[in-house]
């Protein structure tokens, strides 16, 4: 680790390692697939709600019988596989922020397919996401060399990370069993917080599992260690939880609200978890760390700008008094109202679908 740190301190430089380049390419492909999957799954959820009369946001699971939802699910799985492999090559501090591209893809497709308009401020938000991602890529840390899954296990069982894990589990339980039944249908932060918190743990486990498989394919079998299978169990648990609550969020709220908030929370928590567990910044100069933080702030600001712009457009002129003051306040004031507007704006589509089903 000392040698790795010495190399990282030599300066950020524009040069990227081969592993980092591979991680970047995979992360960009992943974001494209995942961004498209949001839109496809949203269309599938709408079709399922029309067919069954029960929305996923209130506990319905009819979307499991909807082919279009499965197309979106397969698209997301392809993106997640690419993302999985990306974490095996590059640090989470580099891979995770590149997920901003999924917001751009989602926003652009939503503009053309879901009639969720994207105007000048939305375009500015997309540009900010791209610019911030470029800064993060340029100043990305080099991945420290790992030769065994047991090294990752030692990182995962250090007191600081165990404290983070315990905090996440407690918060998720409180959100699921107390806040979700009371405020899940009116406050977008409930479902997205559950997804993001569990997501930060899943990424750490995905990185551990991906590294284990990478070492195995290179000739050093890691499947003989119980730690590898434990990380696999954590990944499965976290992903299933994320999928369930992401479906609830997408069906209850506008895609343009869910995607940016989920990205901001997920990225922040994942980077925090990675810094604690893998110590991504330990070998970097202060200048590089500050540049990465600035790039991250620009990316997060771009996604928030996209959110505020889209949220404002969902509010009729007569309700312009509730123009967004902050993402959380806007959601709190307009959660149920936005859902009502969403239902009204999709009524024509639902009628068309019903006519198709008659034939």
TrEMBL record:
Molecular function (GO) terms listed?
magnesium ion transmembrane transporter activity
Query: Can you supply one Gene Ontology CC term for this chain's record?
Result: early endosome
Name the PANTHER family on file.
MAGNESIUM TRANSPORTER-RELATED (PTHR12570:SF19), PTHR12570
Report how it sits in the membrane: Multi-pass membrane protein
Q: How does it assemble?
A: Homodimer.
Entry's InterPro entries?
EmrE-like (IPR037185), Mg_trans_NIPA (IPR008521)
Q: Which UniProt keywords apply?
A: Cell membrane, Endosome, Ion transport, Magnesium, Membrane, Transmembrane, Transmembrane helix, Transport
Task: Supply the name of the protein.
Answer: Probable magnesium transporter
Segments passing through the bilayer: 20-40, 68-89, 95-114, 121-141, 161-179, 188-209, 229-246, 253-277, 289-309
The compartments listed are: Cell membrane; Early endosome; Membrane
Summarizing the function annotation, the protein's role is: Acts as a Mg(2+) transporter. Can also transport other divalent cations such as Fe(2+), Sr(2+), Ba(2+), Mn(2+) and Co(2+) but to a much less extent than Mg(2+).
